[in-house]
Design brief:
homotetramer; 11 helices
Chain lengths: ~220, ~220, ~220, ~220
Amino acid sequence: MDVFDRLKAEAADDWQSYVSHAFVRRMGDGTLSQGAFRAYLVQDYLFLIQFARAYALAAYKSRTVADITAAQAGLAAILEETALHVRLCGRWGLSPADLEATAEHSTTVAYTRFVLDCGAAGDLLDLHAALAPCVIGYAEIGLALAPDGVAALADHPYRDWIAEYAGDTYQGVAAAARAHLDDLAARTMTERRFPDLARIFGAASRLEADFWQMGLDAA
Amino acid sequence: MDVFDRLKAEAADDWQSYVSHAFVRRMGDGTLSQGAFRAYLVQDYLFLIQFARAYALAAYKSRTVADITAAQAGLAAILEETALHVRLCGRWGLSPADLEATAEHSTTVAYTRFVLDCGAAGDLLDLHAALAPCVIGYAEIGLALAPDGVAALADHPYRDWIAEYAGDTYQGVAAAARAHLDDLAARTMTERRFPDLARIFGAASRLEADFWQMGLDAA
Amino acid sequence: MDVFDRLKAEAADDWQSYVSHAFVRRMGDGTLSQGAFRAYLVQDYLFLIQFARAYALAAYKSRTVADITAAQAGLAAILEETALHVRLCGRWGLSPADLEATAEHSTTVAYTRFVLDCGAAGDLLDLHAALAPCVIGYAEIGLALAPDGVAALADHPYRDWIAEYAGDTYQGVAAAARAHLDDLAARTMTERRFPDLARIFGAASRLEADFWQMGLDAA
Amino acid sequence: MDVFDRLKAEAADDWQSYVSHAFVRRMGDGTLSQGAFRAYLVQDYLFLIQFARAYALAAYKSRTVADITAAQAGLAAILEETALHVRLCGRWGLSPADLEATAEHSTTVAYTRFVLDCGAAGDLLDLHAALAPCVIGYAEIGLALAPDGVAALADHPYRDWIAEYAGDTYQGVAAAARAHLDDLAARTMTERRFPDLARIFGAASRLEADFWQMGLDAA
C-alpha cells in the first residue's frame, strides 16, 4: 500500500464524494450539460494558473538541482495542460484573454489557495499531499470514464477531456507524482504526521467535490 | 476621499453584497435564526485563527521595528477577538477544542487563504487591501446595526456581537487600519496599481458575502 | 540525549568554533576591547530585528492557536531582548534610530537570512534547527562565562551581557526552546531527516562564529 | 535614464566596489590566480542553485500566465548557465555532485538569502532590484573585460567566462532584465519607494563585492 492509497483509505468518504461526484458520472455517461462543462472548464483554466504557481512554490522550496528541475518540469506540464482548455474554449469563441479576465469562483479560490497555503505553511510533503487529489485523482477519473480505452470513446461528447486524462502521457504524470509522494514520505513522514496529511488530503478532496458542484450549479 | 473609500467606490456592488447581505439585515432586525448565527460564529472562530496568521505574515514581511510591533499588536488584538467567540460558543456548550476540531467550511477556506496568498504573492499593501473588508467592514456593519448606540440595544438577541463591533475599542481598531492603509498607499501605491488593489478588495468583499451566505445555508 | 544534544554532537567542530570563539573567551576574561564589543552589539541589534521576523514566520507557519500563541511569545521576548541593546548602546550615545540606520554587516545578513530562508523553504523544525544555535547557544555561553554565578561577576566589564544570558529568565527561554525542538522532532523528524537538520544546525553555528569574528575584525 | 541607471547612480560607490573589484581587474588582465578563480566558480555554482530558487519565487509571486512564463524562462536560463560551471569545473576533475556537496561560503549565503528574503518580504520589484546587480552587472563586467570583442580574447586565460557574459545571448538576457525592471517600476514604483529600492540595490552590490573578495581570500 503506497502513501497515496493510505491517504485515500483514511479519507475514503471525502475521496468518494470527489471521484464519484454527479458531475463525473454525468460526464461519463454523456448526460452532462454543455453549460455545466463549460462553466467548469473556464474555472479550471483559472485553477491551473494557480497550480502553476504551486509548482513554482515547490521549486522555490527545493534544495537540490534535481528537486528544482523536477518541480520545473511539473510547472511546464501544467502550462501545457492549459492548451486543452484553450483549444476547447476556443470552440466556444473564448480567447485566453477572455479566460484570464473571468472572475474566479469562490470554489476555485478555495481549493487553489488552500494548496498554496499548505505549501507555504508546511513543507514539500504537505504541498504534494494537497496537490495529490487533483494530480493523481484526475488520472483515476480519466481511466474510470474510459473503461474500454480511449479509442472506444468514438464520438463521446466529452471525448477530448477523457482522452487527455486517460491517455498514457497523463497516466505517466500521475504515476510519477505517486512515486514522488512515496519518496517525500520516506524522507519526511513520521507516523505522527500521517493524520495531519490525511486531513490535508481529505480537505483537498472535499474542495475538489465542491469544484464539480460549482459546475453543476452554474448550468 | 481616503484609500478605503476609493476601494469601496470602485467595488461598490461587491461591497453592498457584503455589508447589506440578508444575514446582516436579519441579525440587525433580530430575525436571524440562532442556528444560522451559531454556524457562522463557529466558522468565524476558525476564520480568526487564519487571520492571526495573516498578521503574523504582516510582521514577517515588515522591515522596521515599528512595523513589526504594529503587526504584532494586530495579531494580539485578533487573539483577543476570539474571546467573544469562546464566550458565546461556551453558552452552547462548545469548548475551544471543539471549535478547533470543526472542519473549515469551503467559504472559510476561500476567504482566509485568499488573504494569506495576497500577502505571500504581493506586498503589505496587497495584504491589507485583502484584510480591509473584514477589519474595516465589521466596524461599518457594527455601527449600522446600532443606529441609536450600543446602550439602546437592550435585550437585542445579537447584542453581544453588535456591541463588540460597534464599540469604541473596535471602532478604534478599524480607524487605525484605515489610516494604516493610507500610509501604505502613500508609500507604495501607484495609480496603475489601484485597479489591482480594487480587484483584491472586490474579491475579498464577495468572499465575505459568501461567508454570510454559508451561515444562512447552514440553518 | 535530546535532539539539541544530538545536533551538537553531529556538528561538534562547528559548534566549538562558535561557543569557544576568541570573542567569547575574551569577553569572559574581560580582555575583549570595547570597540569589538560595541561593533558586535550594534550588529546584534539589527540581527534581532530579523530574528523577530523569524518568530513571526513561525507564527505564520503554525496551524493551531497554541502554536501561534507560542510563536508570538517568542516574538515578544525578542523585542524585549533588544532593550538590553538599547540600554547599552544608549551609554555610547547611540539611539534606536541610530542603530536602525546602521548598514547590516554581511555576516549579519548571512545568518539572519539563512534562518529566514530555512523557515520559508522548510517546515517549523527546519526553522527551529536554524534558530537553535542562537537561542540555546547564548544560554550555554552565558552560563560558561559566569561559572560562579551572576552575583560573582561584580564589576566584570561585560557583566550586563553575561548576566542577561546566564540569568534565570533567559535560561528558561532556552530550556523551553530545547523542549520545543524535542516536541517538533517527535512530530516530524524521521531519521532520514536528521543529517539535513544537522547540516542546517552546523551551518548556523559557523555563521554564528563568523558573527563573533566580525566583532573582532571591526576593532 | 532607466531605473537601472538611476539605481546605479544612487548607489554609485557600492556599485564601483563591485564592478571594479580587484578580482574583476585581475581576471581582465589575466593575473588572477587559478586558485582564486576556482574558489569563486565553485561557490558561484552553489550561488546559481539559490538564484534558480529566486526565479521560482518570482513565478510563485506572479499573477498572470505571462509573468509566470517569463519567470520560468529565467529559471531555465539559470539552469543552463550552470553548464558553463560544470564544464569548467569538470576540467579540474570536479563533478556536479562534488560541487553540490561543497559547503556554501558565508558570502554565498549572505547574497543569495538576502535576495530570496527581499522577494519573500517584498514584491516582485524588490526581488528584481536585489537580483539586478548580478543579472545586469555580469553583462556590464563581461563587456568591460572584452573591450575589443570576444574574438579578440584569443588565448586569454579567462576567455570562457568573459565570452559567456560578453556574448550576445547573455547581453540579451541582461537587456531583457533591464526592460523588465522598467516595466515593474512603471507598475509599482512610487518615488517614495525609490530610496528603499536603492538601499536593496546598494546592499546587493556590496554583497557581490564581498563575493569577489571571497575568491581572492581563498587563494
